[in-house]
Amino acid sequence: MTPATGRMTSLLARLGHENQDNRDRGSVSLWVVMFAFVTLALLILVVDGGQVIVAKSRAADIAEQAARAAADDIDPGALRNGAVAIAAGACGTPGPASELVSTYQKGVGVTATMLTCTPGTGPGGAPDVTVAVQVSMKPFLPVNPFGTITVTAAETAFLACGTANARVAC
Predict the structure, then answer these.
(1) Which among 131, 133, 136 is positioned nearest to 155, based on CA atoms?
(2) 0.70 exceeded by pTM
(3) Is-contact 160 140, C-beta < 8 A?
């Protein structure tokens, strides 16, 4: 092999190798972009899943507090006669349960709606109130079909004397 041929072979080898390097350029960038997109999508799903859990907890909390507020509204006329009963307006629109639900949604960025409020008679003849509440929140990334997160919860409060295991009508 002559020196000129050696230089030519070396030059061609370098050109072929540089051409190989040029084909590989940008492949790492493509992987980084794809990995970042997948990671961001998973992060959004985790955050929105957490918001569903928080919304369910808020709905249960609102329903429980509204049921307690309604159960605490004792009918004074029945009490004077020796009976313990929940007042007739406890579940009404200008009542303690509906006022609590409307007050709660003013400052926390959720929409809470009282679906039902029904007084009844629980175990041992004690009066009780069951309140169902619907809570709607906007997710982190509001796209269809996840434009809003809507959950419901129902809780019951008993107006009774005694302990949780031995409820009796007062």
Answers:
(1) 131
(2) no
(3) no
